[in-house]
Amino acid sequence: MDLNWSLKELYESFSGEAFQGDLAKLDTYIKEMNKLATEMTENHEDEQKKLEAYIALAEKISLTFEKLGVFSELTVSVNSKDEEGNKYADIIDQKQSDLAEAETKISKWISEIKDINAIIDHSTFLQSFRFFLQEIVEHSKHLLSEKEEVLLAKMKNTGSTAWVNYKNLLISNHKVEIEVEGKKEELPLTVVLNMAYEKNADLRKKAYLAEIDSYKKIEDGIAAALNGIKGEVITVSKMRGYESPLAMTLEDSRMSKATLDAMLSAMKESLPTFRKYLRRKAEMLGYNNGLPFYELYAPVIEKEMKYSYEQGKAFVEKQFRSFDNSLGDYAKKAMEHKWIDVLPKEGKVGGAFCCAVHSIGESRILLNYGDNLGDTITMAHELGHGFHGECLKEESILNTNYPMPLAETASTFCETIVKKAAIKEGSKEEAFAILETEISDSTQVIVDIYSRYLFETNVFKEREDSPLTVKRIKELMVEAQKEAYGDGLDQEYLHPYMWTWKSHYYYADANFYNFPYAFGLLFAKGLYAEYLKRGTSFVEDYKKLLAVTGKLKIEDVTRTINIDVTDAAFWKNSLAIIEEDINEFMKLSYEI
Ligand SMILES: [Zn+2]
Fold first, then answer.
1. What's the mean pLDDT when you consider all of the chain?
2. In the chain, helix, strand, coil percent, each to 5?
3. For the whole model, what pTM was predicted?
4. CA 69 to CA 478: how far, in whole Å?
Protein backbone atom coordinates (compact mmCIF):
# COMPACT_ATOMS: atom_id res chain seq x y z
CA MET A 1 0.00 0.00 0.00
CA ASP A 2 1.20 3.48 -0.88
CA LEU A 3 1.77 5.37 2.37
CA ASN A 4 2.77 8.67 0.75
CA TRP A 5 0.29 11.51 0.81
CA SER A 6 -1.29 12.81 -2.33
CA LEU A 7 -0.89 16.50 -3.20
CA LYS A 8 -2.49 16.40 -6.63
CA GLU A 9 -5.74 17.66 -5.12
CA LEU A 10 -3.85 20.95 -4.76
CA TYR A 11 -1.85 20.99 -7.99
CA GLU A 12 -0.47 18.43 -10.44
CA SER A 13 2.91 20.18 -10.61
CA PHE A 14 4.70 23.51 -10.23
CA SER A 15 5.03 23.97 -13.98
CA GLY A 16 1.43 23.03 -14.73
CA GLU A 17 -1.15 25.53 -15.89
CA ALA A 18 -3.13 25.50 -12.64
CA PHE A 19 -0.19 26.45 -10.39
CA GLN A 20 1.23 29.03 -12.79
CA GLY A 21 -2.25 30.41 -13.39
CA ASP A 22 -2.85 30.90 -9.65
CA LEU A 23 0.55 32.49 -9.25
CA ALA A 24 -0.32 35.02 -11.95
CA LYS A 25 -3.72 35.55 -10.37
CA LEU A 26 -2.06 36.28 -7.04
CA ASP A 27 0.01 39.03 -8.65
CA THR A 28 -3.12 40.56 -10.11
CA TYR A 29 -4.87 40.43 -6.72
CA ILE A 30 -1.91 42.08 -5.00
CA LYS A 31 -1.94 44.88 -7.59
CA GLU A 32 -5.68 45.25 -7.07
CA MET A 33 -5.19 45.44 -3.31
CA ASN A 34 -2.57 48.16 -3.62
CA LYS A 35 -4.85 50.11 -5.93
CA LEU A 36 -7.81 49.61 -3.61
CA ALA A 37 -5.74 50.78 -0.64
CA THR A 38 -4.93 54.05 -2.38
CA GLU A 39 -8.45 54.64 -3.61
CA MET A 40 -10.40 53.68 -0.52
CA THR A 41 -8.25 55.65 1.90
CA GLU A 42 -8.60 58.91 -0.06
CA ASN A 43 -11.70 59.83 1.88
CA HIS A 44 -14.42 58.35 4.07
CA GLU A 45 -17.25 58.24 1.54
CA ASP A 46 -19.00 54.94 0.78
CA GLU A 47 -17.42 53.20 3.75
CA GLN A 48 -19.67 50.16 3.59
CA LYS A 49 -19.01 49.49 -0.09
CA LYS A 50 -15.30 49.94 0.40
CA LEU A 51 -15.20 47.58 3.36
CA GLU A 52 -17.10 44.94 1.41
CA ALA A 53 -14.70 45.25 -1.50
CA TYR A 54 -11.73 44.99 0.84
CA ILE A 55 -13.01 41.87 2.63
CA ALA A 56 -13.90 40.13 -0.64
CA LEU A 57 -10.44 40.77 -2.05
CA ALA A 58 -8.65 39.87 1.20
CA GLU A 59 -10.50 36.56 1.22
CA LYS A 60 -9.46 35.74 -2.36
CA ILE A 61 -5.86 36.67 -1.61
CA SER A 62 -5.74 34.50 1.53
CA LEU A 63 -7.14 31.48 -0.28
CA THR A 64 -4.74 31.81 -3.18
CA PHE A 65 -1.77 32.40 -0.90
CA GLU A 66 -2.71 29.38 1.17
CA LYS A 67 -3.12 26.99 -1.74
CA LEU A 68 0.14 28.02 -3.43
CA GLY A 69 2.10 28.22 -0.18
CA VAL A 70 0.87 24.93 1.21
CA PHE A 71 1.67 23.07 -2.00
CA SER A 72 5.25 24.38 -1.96
CA GLU A 73 5.79 23.80 1.74
CA LEU A 74 4.31 20.32 1.82
CA THR A 75 6.38 19.33 -1.19
CA VAL A 76 9.54 20.49 0.58
CA SER A 77 8.56 18.83 3.88
CA VAL A 78 8.78 15.36 2.36
CA ASN A 79 11.73 16.19 0.12
CA SER A 80 13.91 18.99 1.50
CA LYS A 81 15.98 19.06 -1.70
CA ASP A 82 13.06 19.66 -4.04
CA GLU A 83 14.39 22.63 -6.02
CA GLU A 84 11.12 23.91 -7.39
CA GLY A 85 9.40 23.54 -4.03
CA ASN A 86 12.10 25.57 -2.32
CA LYS A 87 12.13 28.18 -5.05
CA TYR A 88 8.39 28.76 -4.99
CA ALA A 89 8.16 28.69 -1.19
CA ASP A 90 10.60 31.61 -1.26
CA ILE A 91 8.82 33.47 -4.03
CA ILE A 92 5.48 33.19 -2.25
CA ASP A 93 7.01 34.38 1.02
CA GLN A 94 8.36 37.43 -0.77
CA LYS A 95 4.95 38.27 -2.18
CA GLN A 96 3.54 38.55 1.34
CA SER A 97 5.66 41.63 1.94
CA ASP A 98 4.24 43.28 -1.20
CA LEU A 99 1.01 43.65 0.75
CA ALA A 100 2.42 45.17 3.94
CA GLU A 101 2.03 48.80 2.93
CA ALA A 102 -1.53 48.38 1.69
CA GLU A 103 -2.50 46.51 4.86
CA THR A 104 -1.14 49.28 7.10
CA LYS A 105 -2.92 51.98 5.11
CA ILE A 106 -6.23 50.15 5.16
CA SER A 107 -5.95 49.32 8.87
CA LYS A 108 -5.45 53.01 9.68
CA TRP A 109 -8.39 53.94 7.51
CA ILE A 110 -10.65 51.33 9.12
CA SER A 111 -9.71 52.56 12.58
CA GLU A 112 -10.74 56.10 11.60
CA ILE A 113 -14.29 55.05 10.75
CA LYS A 114 -16.57 56.83 13.21
CA ASP A 115 -19.08 54.09 13.95
CA ILE A 116 -17.93 50.83 12.42
CA ASN A 117 -20.55 48.76 14.22
CA ALA A 118 -23.36 50.76 12.61
CA ILE A 119 -21.87 50.06 9.19
CA ILE A 120 -21.51 46.38 9.95
CA ASP A 121 -25.11 46.22 11.18
CA HIS A 122 -26.18 47.53 7.80
CA SER A 123 -24.53 44.82 5.74
CA THR A 124 -25.33 41.12 6.02
CA PHE A 125 -22.04 40.38 4.29
CA LEU A 126 -19.99 42.39 6.79
CA GLN A 127 -21.75 40.87 9.78
CA SER A 128 -19.77 37.65 9.36
CA PHE A 129 -16.58 39.66 9.67
CA ARG A 130 -17.39 41.76 12.70
CA PHE A 131 -14.63 40.25 14.81
CA PHE A 132 -12.10 40.44 11.99
CA LEU A 133 -12.81 44.15 11.54
CA GLN A 134 -12.97 44.94 15.24
CA GLU A 135 -9.60 43.31 15.74
CA ILE A 136 -8.12 45.53 13.04
CA VAL A 137 -9.49 48.55 14.93
CA GLU A 138 -8.05 47.33 18.23
CA HIS A 139 -4.63 46.55 16.77
CA SER A 140 -4.43 49.85 15.01
CA LYS A 141 -4.59 51.62 18.36
CA HIS A 142 -1.08 50.34 18.85
CA LEU A 143 0.22 51.26 15.42
CA LEU A 144 2.81 54.02 15.20
CA SER A 145 3.15 56.49 12.34
CA GLU A 146 4.04 54.96 8.98
CA LYS A 147 7.56 56.39 9.21
CA GLU A 148 8.05 54.99 12.71
CA GLU A 149 6.73 51.59 11.66
CA VAL A 150 9.20 51.45 8.78
CA LEU A 151 12.05 52.56 11.02
CA LEU A 152 11.10 50.02 13.67
CA ALA A 153 10.90 47.17 11.16
CA LYS A 154 14.35 48.09 9.83
CA MET A 155 15.89 48.52 13.27
CA LYS A 156 14.55 45.11 14.29
CA ASN A 157 16.69 43.53 11.58
CA THR A 158 19.77 44.81 13.33
CA GLY A 159 18.25 44.50 16.79
CA SER A 160 16.21 41.52 18.04
CA THR A 161 16.52 39.60 14.77
CA ALA A 162 20.28 39.97 14.74
CA TRP A 163 20.44 38.96 18.40
CA VAL A 164 18.38 35.85 17.89
CA ASN A 165 20.51 34.86 14.89
CA TYR A 166 23.62 35.33 16.97
CA LYS A 167 22.18 33.26 19.81
CA ASN A 168 21.14 30.50 17.39
CA LEU A 169 24.61 30.50 15.92
CA LEU A 170 26.17 30.09 19.38
CA ILE A 171 23.81 27.25 20.30
CA SER A 172 23.96 25.36 17.01
CA ASN A 173 27.75 25.39 16.98
CA HIS A 174 27.97 24.60 20.66
CA LYS A 175 29.88 21.42 21.53
CA VAL A 176 29.82 19.64 24.86
CA GLU A 177 32.94 17.86 26.10
CA ILE A 178 31.95 14.52 27.56
CA GLU A 179 33.58 11.18 28.28
CA VAL A 180 31.63 8.31 26.74
CA GLU A 181 32.85 4.73 27.26
CA GLY A 182 36.23 5.94 28.41
CA LYS A 183 36.74 8.21 25.43
CA LYS A 184 36.72 12.03 25.59
CA GLU A 185 34.42 13.39 22.94
CA GLU A 186 33.01 16.71 21.76
CA LEU A 187 29.35 16.20 20.99
CA PRO A 188 26.68 18.54 19.64
CA LEU A 189 24.38 19.91 22.35
CA THR A 190 21.29 18.14 20.95
CA VAL A 191 22.99 14.75 21.25
CA VAL A 192 23.89 15.42 24.88
CA LEU A 193 20.39 16.72 25.69
CA ASN A 194 18.90 13.52 24.28
CA MET A 195 20.93 11.50 26.77
CA ALA A 196 18.35 12.53 29.39
CA TYR A 197 16.19 9.71 27.98
CA GLU A 198 18.98 7.09 28.14
CA LYS A 199 18.47 3.86 30.03
CA ASN A 200 21.89 4.15 31.64
CA ALA A 201 21.67 6.28 34.82
CA ASP A 202 25.41 7.13 34.89
CA LEU A 203 25.23 8.45 31.39
CA ARG A 204 22.21 10.63 32.22
CA LYS A 205 24.07 12.24 35.10
CA LYS A 206 27.31 12.60 33.18
CA ALA A 207 25.47 14.28 30.31
CA TYR A 208 23.84 16.78 32.69
CA LEU A 209 27.11 17.68 34.41
CA ALA A 210 28.92 18.05 31.10
CA GLU A 211 26.09 20.15 29.68
CA ILE A 212 26.05 22.56 32.65
CA ASP A 213 29.83 22.83 32.51
CA SER A 214 29.87 23.56 28.80
CA TYR A 215 27.89 26.81 28.93
CA LYS A 216 30.76 28.83 30.39
CA LYS A 217 32.11 29.20 26.85
CA ILE A 218 28.97 30.91 25.52
CA GLU A 219 27.03 32.25 28.50
CA ASP A 220 28.08 35.89 28.06
CA GLY A 221 27.01 35.95 24.43
CA ILE A 222 23.65 34.36 25.14
CA ALA A 223 22.99 36.67 28.07
CA ALA A 224 23.72 39.63 25.78
CA ALA A 225 21.16 38.29 23.31
CA LEU A 226 18.56 37.85 26.07
CA ASN A 227 19.20 41.37 27.38
CA GLY A 228 19.08 42.85 23.88
CA ILE A 229 15.82 41.18 22.91
CA LYS A 230 13.99 41.75 26.20
CA GLY A 231 15.20 45.36 26.21
CA GLU A 232 13.81 45.91 22.72
CA VAL A 233 10.48 44.33 23.67
CA ILE A 234 10.15 46.67 26.66
CA THR A 235 10.87 49.72 24.48
CA VAL A 236 8.51 48.65 21.70
CA SER A 237 5.63 47.69 23.96
CA LYS A 238 5.89 51.07 25.71
CA MET A 239 5.98 52.99 22.44
CA ARG A 240 2.91 51.12 21.23
CA GLY A 241 1.10 52.08 24.41
CA TYR A 242 0.81 48.70 26.08
CA GLU A 243 0.86 48.51 29.82
CA SER A 244 3.57 45.82 29.71
CA PRO A 245 5.03 43.10 27.49
CA LEU A 246 2.59 40.69 29.15
CA ALA A 247 -0.37 42.91 28.25
CA MET A 248 0.86 42.90 24.63
CA THR A 249 1.08 39.11 24.61
CA LEU A 250 -2.37 38.73 26.13
CA GLU A 251 -3.92 41.00 23.54
CA ASP A 252 -2.26 39.01 20.75
CA SER A 253 -3.61 35.84 22.38
CA ARG A 254 -7.14 37.35 22.57
CA MET A 255 -7.08 36.50 26.25
CA SER A 256 -7.80 38.53 29.41
CA LYS A 257 -5.55 38.91 32.43
CA ALA A 258 -8.37 37.53 34.61
CA THR A 259 -8.22 34.25 32.68
CA LEU A 260 -4.46 34.03 33.01
CA ASP A 261 -4.61 34.76 36.76
CA ALA A 262 -7.35 32.17 37.35
CA MET A 263 -5.34 29.53 35.50
CA LEU A 264 -2.06 30.37 37.25
CA SER A 265 -3.63 30.31 40.71
CA ALA A 266 -5.12 26.85 40.06
CA MET A 267 -1.75 25.66 38.75
CA LYS A 268 0.00 26.97 41.83
CA GLU A 269 -2.43 25.16 44.06
CA SER A 270 -1.84 21.87 42.22
CA LEU A 271 1.95 21.94 42.56
CA PRO A 272 2.10 19.71 45.69
CA THR A 273 0.43 16.87 43.78
CA PHE A 274 3.07 17.02 41.06
CA ARG A 275 5.78 17.07 43.73
CA LYS A 276 4.32 13.89 45.16
CA TYR A 277 4.73 12.25 41.75
CA LEU A 278 8.29 13.55 41.40
CA ARG A 279 9.28 12.26 44.82
CA ARG A 280 7.80 8.84 44.08
CA LYS A 281 9.61 8.70 40.74
CA ALA A 282 12.80 9.65 42.56
CA GLU A 283 12.27 6.86 45.07
CA MET A 284 11.72 4.32 42.32
CA LEU A 285 15.00 5.38 40.74
CA GLY A 286 16.79 5.15 44.09
CA TYR A 287 16.94 8.78 45.32
CA ASN A 288 15.86 10.02 48.76
CA ASN A 289 16.01 13.79 48.34
CA GLY A 290 13.61 14.37 45.49
CA LEU A 291 14.37 13.93 41.81
CA PRO A 292 17.60 15.38 40.42
CA PHE A 293 16.85 17.57 37.38
CA TYR A 294 18.69 15.15 35.11
CA GLU A 295 16.24 12.37 35.96
CA LEU A 296 13.08 14.19 34.88
CA TYR A 297 12.90 12.23 31.63
CA ALA A 298 14.46 9.00 32.89
CA PRO A 299 12.48 5.90 31.96
CA VAL A 300 11.10 4.19 35.08
CA ILE A 301 9.99 1.04 33.34
CA GLU A 302 10.70 -0.39 29.92
CA LYS A 303 7.40 -1.43 28.60
CA GLU A 304 5.90 0.07 25.53
CA MET A 305 2.90 -1.23 23.66
CA LYS A 306 3.50 -1.92 19.98
CA TYR A 307 1.09 -0.85 17.30
CA SER A 308 1.82 -1.34 13.60
CA TYR A 309 0.39 1.39 11.36
CA GLU A 310 -2.52 -0.87 10.42
CA GLN A 311 -3.25 -1.64 14.08
CA GLY A 312 -2.80 2.00 15.06
CA LYS A 313 -5.23 3.13 12.37
CA ALA A 314 -7.89 0.68 13.48
CA PHE A 315 -7.38 1.58 17.15
CA VAL A 316 -7.60 5.33 16.57
CA GLU A 317 -10.67 5.09 14.36
CA LYS A 318 -12.43 2.84 16.87
CA GLN A 319 -11.68 5.13 19.83
CA PHE A 320 -12.65 8.23 17.85
CA ARG A 321 -15.98 6.57 17.07
CA SER A 322 -16.53 5.96 20.76
CA PHE A 323 -16.60 9.76 21.03
CA ASP A 324 -18.55 10.51 17.88
CA ASN A 325 -18.96 9.10 14.39
CA SER A 326 -18.11 12.41 12.76
CA LEU A 327 -14.66 12.23 14.35
CA GLY A 328 -14.28 8.58 13.28
CA ASP A 329 -15.47 9.45 9.77
CA TYR A 330 -12.94 12.23 9.51
CA ALA A 331 -10.10 9.90 10.57
CA LYS A 332 -11.21 7.25 8.10
CA LYS A 333 -11.39 9.80 5.29
CA ALA A 334 -7.87 11.05 6.06
CA MET A 335 -6.50 7.49 6.20
CA GLU A 336 -8.22 6.28 3.04
CA HIS A 337 -7.85 9.31 0.81
CA LYS A 338 -4.10 9.52 1.24
CA TRP A 339 -4.05 12.66 3.38
CA ILE A 340 -1.32 11.15 5.57
CA ASP A 341 2.37 10.78 4.76
CA VAL A 342 3.18 7.91 7.07
CA LEU A 343 6.76 6.64 7.11
CA PRO A 344 10.16 8.26 7.67
CA LYS A 345 12.21 8.65 4.50
CA GLU A 346 15.30 10.44 3.28
CA GLY A 347 14.85 14.18 2.91
CA LYS A 348 11.65 14.22 4.96
CA VAL A 349 11.46 16.49 8.02
CA GLY A 350 11.34 14.89 11.46
CA GLY A 351 8.45 15.01 13.91
CA ALA A 352 4.84 15.34 12.93
CA PHE A 353 2.41 18.08 11.94
CA CYS A 354 -1.00 18.69 10.49
CA CYS A 355 -1.75 21.29 7.88
CA ALA A 356 -5.36 22.29 7.33
CA VAL A 357 -5.90 23.26 3.71
CA HIS A 358 -8.92 25.51 3.83
CA SER A 359 -8.86 26.29 0.12
CA ILE A 360 -9.76 22.67 -0.73
CA GLY A 361 -11.52 21.75 2.51
CA GLU A 362 -9.03 18.99 3.31
CA SER A 363 -5.97 18.50 5.50
CA ARG A 364 -2.59 16.82 5.18
CA ILE A 365 -0.76 15.09 8.00
CA LEU A 366 2.92 14.32 8.19
CA LEU A 367 4.06 11.49 10.47
CA ASN A 368 7.26 9.58 10.99
CA TYR A 369 5.52 6.44 12.12
CA GLY A 370 7.49 3.83 14.06
CA ASP A 371 5.60 0.94 15.61
CA ASN A 372 5.18 2.25 19.16
CA LEU A 373 2.07 3.37 20.96
CA GLY A 374 3.65 6.83 21.04
CA ASP A 375 3.38 6.97 17.25
CA THR A 376 -0.28 5.99 17.41
CA ILE A 377 -0.90 8.75 19.94
CA THR A 378 0.90 11.26 17.71
CA MET A 379 -1.34 10.19 14.85
CA ALA A 380 -4.41 10.79 17.04
CA HIS A 381 -2.99 14.21 18.03
CA GLU A 382 -2.47 15.31 14.43
CA LEU A 383 -5.86 13.98 13.35
CA GLY A 384 -7.29 16.10 16.17
CA HIS A 385 -5.79 19.20 14.52
CA GLY A 386 -7.26 18.00 11.23
CA PHE A 387 -10.69 17.64 12.79
CA HIS A 388 -10.41 21.20 14.10
CA GLY A 389 -9.84 22.29 10.49
CA GLU A 390 -12.81 20.16 9.42
CA CYS A 391 -15.04 22.01 11.89
CA LEU A 392 -13.82 25.34 10.47
CA LYS A 393 -14.52 24.33 6.87
CA GLU A 394 -17.73 26.31 6.51
CA GLU A 395 -16.15 29.50 7.87
CA SER A 396 -14.49 32.14 5.71
CA ILE A 397 -10.72 31.73 5.70
CA LEU A 398 -10.51 35.16 7.38
CA ASN A 399 -12.33 33.65 10.37
CA THR A 400 -10.14 30.57 10.81
CA ASN A 401 -7.10 32.11 12.41
CA TYR A 402 -7.16 30.91 16.03
CA PRO A 403 -4.77 32.11 18.78
CA MET A 404 -1.97 29.99 20.21
CA PRO A 405 -3.75 29.06 23.50
CA LEU A 406 -6.59 27.43 21.49
CA ALA A 407 -4.31 25.78 18.93
CA GLU A 408 -3.78 22.56 20.85
CA THR A 409 -7.35 22.06 22.10
CA ALA A 410 -8.62 19.54 19.55
CA SER A 411 -5.31 17.70 19.32
CA THR A 412 -4.90 17.22 23.08
CA PHE A 413 -8.55 16.22 23.34
CA CYS A 414 -8.08 13.41 20.78
CA GLU A 415 -4.84 12.36 22.43
CA THR A 416 -6.69 12.01 25.72
CA ILE A 417 -9.38 9.79 24.15
CA VAL A 418 -6.78 7.40 22.75
CA LYS A 419 -4.50 7.35 25.82
CA LYS A 420 -7.37 6.60 28.17
CA ALA A 421 -8.36 3.67 25.95
CA ALA A 422 -4.80 2.35 25.72
CA ILE A 423 -4.47 2.44 29.51
CA LYS A 424 -7.66 0.40 29.78
CA GLU A 425 -6.54 -2.17 27.20
CA GLY A 426 -2.95 -2.62 28.35
CA SER A 427 -1.48 -4.83 31.05
CA LYS A 428 -0.63 -3.30 34.45
CA GLU A 429 2.96 -2.65 33.37
CA GLU A 430 1.87 -1.16 30.08
CA ALA A 431 -0.71 1.05 31.78
CA PHE A 432 1.96 2.20 34.21
CA ALA A 433 4.36 3.05 31.39
CA ILE A 434 1.72 5.11 29.56
CA LEU A 435 0.74 6.90 32.77
CA GLU A 436 4.34 7.71 33.60
CA THR A 437 4.98 9.28 30.19
CA GLU A 438 1.69 11.15 30.37
CA ILE A 439 2.35 12.56 33.84
CA SER A 440 5.94 13.38 33.00
CA ASP A 441 4.69 15.41 30.00
CA SER A 442 2.04 17.13 32.13
CA THR A 443 4.70 17.99 34.72
CA GLN A 444 6.58 19.84 31.98
CA VAL A 445 3.48 21.68 30.84
CA ILE A 446 2.28 22.61 34.33
CA VAL A 447 5.26 22.77 36.68
CA ASP A 448 8.07 23.68 34.31
CA ILE A 449 5.87 26.13 32.40
CA TYR A 450 4.99 27.72 35.74
CA SER A 451 8.70 28.16 36.48
CA ARG A 452 9.28 29.63 33.02
CA TYR A 453 6.48 32.11 33.51
CA LEU A 454 7.96 33.23 36.84
CA PHE A 455 11.43 33.48 35.33
CA GLU A 456 10.32 35.55 32.35
CA THR A 457 8.24 37.85 34.56
CA ASN A 458 11.28 38.56 36.73
CA VAL A 459 13.64 39.00 33.80
CA PHE A 460 11.33 41.66 32.33
CA LYS A 461 11.01 43.35 35.71
CA GLU A 462 14.76 43.65 36.26
CA ARG A 463 15.57 44.39 32.62
CA GLU A 464 13.51 47.60 32.89
CA ASP A 465 16.34 49.13 34.93
CA SER A 466 19.44 47.57 33.43
CA PRO A 467 20.83 44.51 31.63
CA LEU A 468 21.13 41.40 33.79
CA THR A 469 24.44 39.68 34.46
CA VAL A 470 24.89 35.97 33.78
CA LYS A 471 25.04 35.42 37.51
CA ARG A 472 21.71 37.16 38.05
CA ILE A 473 19.96 35.32 35.19
CA LYS A 474 21.13 32.01 36.67
CA GLU A 475 19.87 33.02 40.10
CA LEU A 476 16.45 33.95 38.73
CA MET A 477 16.22 30.60 36.94
CA VAL A 478 17.08 28.62 40.05
CA GLU A 479 14.67 30.68 42.18
CA ALA A 480 11.86 30.02 39.70
CA GLN A 481 12.61 26.29 39.69
CA LYS A 482 12.64 26.17 43.47
CA GLU A 483 9.30 27.91 43.66
CA ALA A 484 7.68 25.67 41.06
CA TYR A 485 9.19 22.27 41.80
CA GLY A 486 9.66 22.69 45.57
CA ASP A 487 10.80 19.49 47.25
CA GLY A 488 9.86 17.50 44.14
CA LEU A 489 13.33 18.14 42.79
CA ASP A 490 16.65 17.60 44.56
CA GLN A 491 17.70 21.19 45.37
CA GLU A 492 21.35 20.28 44.83
CA TYR A 493 20.69 19.40 41.21
CA LEU A 494 18.60 22.09 39.55
CA HIS A 495 19.28 23.64 36.14
CA PRO A 496 20.51 27.26 36.23
CA TYR A 497 20.99 27.34 32.44
CA MET A 498 17.53 26.46 31.15
CA TRP A 499 17.37 29.86 29.47
CA THR A 500 20.19 29.12 27.07
CA TRP A 501 18.77 26.71 24.52
CA LYS A 502 15.01 27.12 25.04
CA SER A 503 14.18 29.23 22.04
CA HIS A 504 10.92 30.64 23.47
CA TYR A 505 12.66 33.35 25.50
CA TYR A 506 14.11 34.84 22.35
CA TYR A 507 10.98 35.46 20.24
CA ALA A 508 10.65 39.25 20.18
CA ASP A 509 7.17 38.97 18.66
CA ALA A 510 5.83 36.27 20.98
CA ASN A 511 6.75 36.85 24.60
CA PHE A 512 5.65 34.61 27.45
CA TYR A 513 5.50 31.78 24.98
CA ASN A 514 4.88 29.49 27.94
CA PHE A 515 1.39 29.92 29.40
CA PRO A 516 -0.33 29.06 26.09
CA TYR A 517 0.99 25.50 26.52
CA ALA A 518 -0.59 25.18 29.95
CA PHE A 519 -3.80 26.72 28.65
CA GLY A 520 -3.90 24.24 25.76
CA LEU A 521 -3.44 21.18 27.95
CA LEU A 522 -5.79 22.26 30.73
CA PHE A 523 -8.50 23.56 28.45
CA ALA A 524 -8.57 20.27 26.54
CA LYS A 525 -8.65 18.31 29.80
CA GLY A 526 -11.47 20.51 31.07
CA LEU A 527 -13.43 19.83 27.91
CA TYR A 528 -12.81 16.14 28.36
CA ALA A 529 -14.16 16.34 31.92
CA GLU A 530 -17.22 18.09 30.51
CA TYR A 531 -17.62 15.26 27.98
CA LEU A 532 -17.46 12.63 30.71
CA LYS A 533 -20.11 14.53 32.62
CA ARG A 534 -22.48 15.30 29.76
CA GLY A 535 -21.90 12.40 27.38
CA THR A 536 -23.21 12.65 23.82
CA SER A 537 -24.98 15.97 24.38
CA PHE A 538 -21.51 17.50 24.63
CA VAL A 539 -20.46 16.48 21.10
CA GLU A 540 -22.41 19.05 19.06
CA ASP A 541 -21.39 21.83 21.44
CA TYR A 542 -17.77 20.78 21.10
CA LYS A 543 -17.93 20.99 17.32
CA LYS A 544 -19.59 24.40 17.51
CA LEU A 545 -16.89 25.58 19.86
CA LEU A 546 -14.15 24.53 17.45
CA ALA A 547 -15.95 26.35 14.65
CA VAL A 548 -15.79 29.74 16.41
CA THR A 549 -12.19 29.55 17.64
CA GLY A 550 -11.06 31.90 14.83
CA LYS A 551 -13.57 34.66 15.33
CA LEU A 552 -14.04 35.34 19.03
CA LYS A 553 -12.00 36.28 22.08
CA ILE A 554 -11.04 33.27 24.15
CA GLU A 555 -13.53 34.06 26.92
CA ASP A 556 -16.33 34.29 24.35
CA VAL A 557 -15.25 31.06 22.65
CA THR A 558 -15.52 29.16 25.93
CA ARG A 559 -18.76 30.89 26.87
CA THR A 560 -20.44 29.22 23.87
CA ILE A 561 -20.17 26.01 25.86
CA ASN A 562 -20.96 27.59 29.22
CA ILE A 563 -17.42 27.47 30.48
CA ASP A 564 -16.06 30.45 32.38
CA VAL A 565 -12.29 30.44 32.05
CA THR A 566 -11.94 33.44 34.34
CA ASP A 567 -13.11 31.19 37.18
CA ALA A 568 -10.36 29.19 38.87
CA ALA A 569 -12.87 26.38 39.48
CA PHE A 570 -12.74 25.42 35.79
CA TRP A 571 -8.96 25.06 35.90
CA LYS A 572 -9.04 23.13 39.17
CA ASN A 573 -11.41 20.69 37.55
CA SER A 574 -8.97 20.13 34.68
CA LEU A 575 -6.09 19.67 37.07
CA ALA A 576 -8.16 17.14 39.03
CA ILE A 577 -8.04 14.85 35.96
CA ILE A 578 -4.24 14.91 36.03
CA GLU A 579 -4.34 14.39 39.79
CA GLU A 580 -6.42 11.27 39.24
CA ASP A 581 -3.73 9.98 36.90
CA ILE A 582 -1.08 10.75 39.50
CA ASN A 583 -3.00 8.85 42.16
CA GLU A 584 -3.38 5.88 39.83
CA PHE A 585 0.36 6.08 39.12
CA MET A 586 1.13 6.07 42.83
CA LYS A 587 -1.07 3.04 43.38
CA LEU A 588 0.35 1.08 40.43
CA SER A 589 3.91 1.96 41.40
CA TYR A 590 3.58 -0.31 44.45
CA GLU A 591 1.93 -3.11 42.51
CA ILE A 592 4.19 -3.64 39.52
ZN1 LIG B 1 -0.17 19.86 18.08
1. 95
2. 70, 5, 25
3. 0.91
4. 43
